[in-house]
Specification:
Blueprint lengths: L12 E8 L3 H8 L5 H4 L3 E6 L11 E8 L3 E13 L3 E6 L7 E9 L5 E9 L5 H8 L4 H31 L6
Antiparallel strand pairs: 1-7, 2-3, 3-4, 4-5, 5-6, 6-7
């Protein structure tokens, strides 16, 4: 990620791509399984559907619990804002109208039967835990945003790498590790 000098109000974004040798339908099963995500993340500790939901559908809510060395532990409620199997799964964190973040998995069928998988995220426009750090050190806002966006990008790359390994292992008949 290159330095952009972005501020929180700029709604900075980042995205990571990978090519997976498995069908979009199979990759969809992984990216839409919110219960799998804590096993692939360095921050997300647990996730659970709310209101009786058991799978992503437009408007469904889920609770996520996270932890970070610099921010401590927190929980958020997310709302599914896009859901079209096996193409897109997106959620807004906290307030769907003014989310603290929006996250999206996009899947595109490749000509050879594989999948082009993208994970994208947008910070803001609603306040998040990062907003409090910026409030305490407004002169460091651009650096705070840059460092956090780099963390997101690195963590997203690791998540996509883990999804690729799971999908390709299953696609080749190997047992999941």
């Amino acid at each position: 990620m290159e330095w952009t000098g972005a501020r929180y109000a700029d709604r900075p974004t980042t995205e990571v791509h990978t090519r997976i040798a498995a069908s979009p339908e199979h990759v969809w099963e992984l990216v839409s399984d919110i219960g799998l995500m804590p096993t692939l993340s360095t921050e997300l500790r647990s996730v659970e559907w709310l209101d009786g939901a058991t799978w992503p559908v437009l408007g469904a809510r889920f609770l996520g619990r996270s932890e970070h060395a610099s921010f401590g532990a927190w929980e958020t409620t997310s709302y599914v804002v896009e859901c079209e199997a096996p193409r897109v799964f997106a959620w807004a964190v906290e307030d769907p109208e003014q989310p603290s973040a929006v996250w999206r998995f996009s899947l595109r069928a490749a000509d050879d039967g594989g999948t082009e998988l993208t994970q994208w995220m947008q910070m803001g426009p609603g306040r998040s835990g990062l907003s409090y750090a910026i409030d305490r050190m407004p002169d460091k806002e651009q650096k705070i945003v840059y460092v956090r966006m780099r963390e997101f990008e690195q963590n997203m790359a690791a998540t996509l790498g883990a999804i690729k390994k799971l999908a390709e292992g299953a696609a080749s008949g190997e047992a999941d590790a």
